[in-house]
What does this fold into?
Amino acid sequence: MPQFSPVDLIALLWFLAAWLGSSFVIEMTPRGKAGLNSLMHRYRGLWMQRMLARDMRMMDGQVIAALQNGTAFFASTSLIALGGALTLFRSSEDMLTVVAALPFGVPVSHVQWEMKVVGLMIIFIYAFFKFAWSYRLYNYVAILLGAMPPASQKDTPQAEAHVMRTTRLFEAAGRHFNRGQRAFFFALGYLGWFISPWILFITTAMVVIVTWRRQFASNAWRAMGH
It folds into this structure.
């Protein structure tokens, strides 16, 4: 990308490293196993096990429907955000004037502005695919809930296998939802690049701090028994 200065490229690499690194720590490391997302994965499995012992499962279906609705909301929001990014792309002349007038604004060319907007669009497209796939997985979970063996068969190997199958699919739905939501958080940090690469350093660091705190030091995390 010859249009960008070395500071811009370093800031972009910092942004990508922070996003990928935080995702790796939360999902792949022993430290991440103690995070809020992983704790909720365990409760998904506990939920499925206890549901197997119940004959009346209407409430479980309602909770799954609520999770589906929340995922659909975020998928729709990502498309709206994508439309906003397209507006930024079309009105580059006006936006360049506004950004240049900001106290920390750095003058950029039309090509630089458009490439930054394309990057923002890619983030929202990624988020949409994650939310859409999560929504689809919740549909599959609802089907498996409907096929759950009756409580009278809860001690059979087939019932246990079905619970494990449903739990794994349930965890996958939550994992993709979390990745889409994390993309939204980092999209907010990415907006700092439109002002200055130095602002991108700061906004990215702020997103990492907020994400880390919510996973490992928030009131919700402490409420789970820490």
